[in-house]
Amino acid sequence: MSEDDRPANDADGAVELFRQLPDLAVREELVERFLPLARHLARRFAGRGESIEDLIQVADLGLLNAIDRFDPDRGVQFTTFAAVTITGELKRHFRDRGWSVRVPRSLQESALLVHRTLETLWQDLGRSPTISEIAHGADLTEEAVIEAMDAIQAYSPASLDATVSEDGTPMSETMGHADPSFEVAEGWASVAPALEKLPDRERRILYLRFFTGMTQTEIAQEIGISQMHISRLIAQSLERVRSEIRETGAREQDASEPEGGRR
Amino acid sequence: MEDLSTPITVSVAAQPDTLHILRVVAASAAALLQLPFDAVDEVRIAVDEAGILLLESSPDADALQLEITTSDDSLLITMGTDAPAAGWPRAADRESWSWTVIQGLTLNPQFLSSDDGRPAIRFRTRSPMKTP
Prior knowledge:
Strand order of the largest sheet of chain B: 1-2-3-5-4
Number of strands of chain B: 5
Largest interface: A-B, 42 and 35 residues
Number of helices of chain B: 4
Distance between the termini of chain A: 13 Å
CATH class of chain B: Alpha Beta
Order of helices and strands of chain B: EHHEEHHEE
Order of helices and strands of chain A: HHHHHHHHHHHHH
Number of helices of chain A: 13
Helix content of chain A: 55-70%
Structural class of chain A: mainly alpha
Oligomer: heterodimer
Number of domains of chain B: 1
Structural class of chain B: alpha+beta
Helix content of chain B: 25-40%
Shape of chain A: elongated
Largest sheet of chain A: none
Shape of chain B: globular
Radius of gyration of chain B: 14 Å
Distance between the termini of chain B: 22 Å
Radius of gyration of chain A: 23 Å
Strand content of chain B: 25-35%
Number of strands of chain A: 0
Strand content of chain A: under 5%
């Protein structure tokens, strides 16, 4: 089949092959053809505490799942379907593994120490402490503090959402409301749907940081939680928005493929 | 305040799993300037996003480079790759989430391109106590 004759959802030329499944040789050909996609996606998740070999294994498994679950008659291009499936597998892999298996114990200890010292100094100084102040307070080297910063961001317990403030008030009740102007902020219109999916608190934090230009310390004071917590929530929210944009992009690509494009 | 009169330059393999090296180098430079924790934290995020954007845009690159100099009370950070990137910066690069984040966290972010088409991104870190 020439490229021009392919149905709209078959820009990657895979539909014909899928129709020949469950032929094992064809399945192998599909694996081989789309393995570079899986490897590419695996590398996108590298540098977060998991070895690249493990990530490739997870992504390859995601590819096999995608091949087995793909329905060529649904009008979706396989590349799109596979990218969403593989990314989902990679994200699940990170969710399923606790911090403990990703971060060496000594680094966990340093990270907790840095975390505690940061909270204390922040309270005492009324501002964000410098790295050397944290190092001095935690009796660590500055290098160890910087190394621990990566580990702190990698740590994203689900219990964060249930954090309560010191007086026992659930965090969700202390956060105030999302600012309506957030939705119309110039330059962010295209990501508004992704931002909508964030919890109110996270959306408000991004609004304060990116649109009002408040520092993390100022936001922490405004909202009434620690700067460390703000720092972590910003990092997590940015990542969540990124994932959401990626997935929405894949869905929109599916939707833009005309129905009945196949012959 | 420390003065990095000699720029810090680092070159790593153009792969996502080397980005943490650049994050740590940038964070260390920010720490030298006695920037507060939150500013250091955001330098790391901006370097990460710039790295992701550059790696996506120049898939043929072998190396990802980071150069840091000081200017007043902030860092001037330039990151680039060693392979041309077609059409850099594309509309998709300008509209990317990474670029949005970089714009939000840094001052005067710019797309740069060498004569032979190698892509780069340059930005200045915020001075911690100033608002944009």
